Amino acid sequence: MPVFTYTGRNASGQRVEGRMESVNSNAVADQLFGSGVVPIDILPVGGGSDAGIGGTIRAWWGNFAGEKIGLIELMLFSRQMYTLMKAGVPMLRALGGLKESTQNRAFARLLQDLRDSLDAGRELFASLHRHPKIFSPFYVSMVRVGEMTGGLEEIFLRLSYHMEFEHDMRQRIKSALRYPTFVVIAMGVAIVVINLFVIPAFAKVYAGFKAELPLMTKVLIGFSNFMVQSWPLLLAMLVGAIIGFRLYVATTPGRYRWDKYKLRIPIAGKIILKATLARFARSFALAYKSGVPIVQSMTVVAQVVDNAYIAERIDNMREGVERGESILRTALASGVFTPVVLQMIAVGEETGELDSLMAEVAGMYEREVEYEVRTLSAQVEPILIIGLAILVLILALGVFLPIWDLGKAAIK
Questions:
Q1: Most buried of 5, 15, 257, 344 (most Cβ within 10 A)?
Q2: Which of 353, 307, 328 is nearest to 169 (CA)?
Q3: Is 247 exposed, middle or buried (0-12, 13-18, 19+ CB in 10 A)?
Q4: Which pLDDT value is given to residue 242?
């Protein structure tokens, strides 16, 4: 029987590691959940795959050719499960009805797998955990709390609202960054076209006059000649840089440094920070209101904020709470919250209304993000205009100064 190494966190949020012998990784996850441990990583000893080569090929082909299961599908799934369970429809029948009505084949296969898993005697949260690429640890933990407390339908409703917020936040950020990205790409393409085609044509004209050229023109012609002669090398370097960056960001240290640097990007950094903190506050409020202990709430929320740097700050907050410190003190030590938010956290701890006040914190950050997104174009446009003006000035001086000098020489 295969042996697996696992990493997880227990009910108090402490890190747990060990080895376990079981049929496959799903069975290991079921045993860990049964013992009160939330698994983070499960790997076969020796680096093999419990699914075998055939399963790996099928999974790869499914990801390549199959339909994707995105946030919209999960949001609709949560809302539909709430409606069906509230109406008293049994779980297996509800999953079967959703499977028959969905047009997404990948989602239909997922629902069928959930039904088979429930038929095999697993609980719903354990069945969801079998698909970690689709259901986040936060989602699985919330469903587990719902099953334990008997309020699963209410959990599904809250999850649907939460994912609606996530989708809306992502769309706002994408729409805000679309215009600046398009302008920067257009400027880059223009620079390449001018250096590869326009400047070489002018250089031939200037060479025919055999006149002394201005310094700016010499610089432009030299850079253009370098691009014309070395464009395959430059293209290879660009592709290599993109691949190297993606590989570096895929590592744990690289992801941490990049997520930390993103928060310092002018203009866009503050939007990313506020959106991330809004996601944290909304997730924490949802978990706390649903009855998840504070330490465990911070553990699962740290895994869904989608920023390694902020996740580390949340982990530091969790460790401080475990040592007996107040949430206010740990939040102050994190250095990422504004004074207004810290004051609301203090009031929430004193009154016992931490969940509602954290929801207010999330709403505050959401409103700030919405305002920043609306004014982003006004903030970015002056920078883009100045950059475009400098580019045009350099090209104009480099191209037309020799023509001006030649015109004066001809008049004399």
A1: 344
A2: 307
A3: exposed
A4: 92
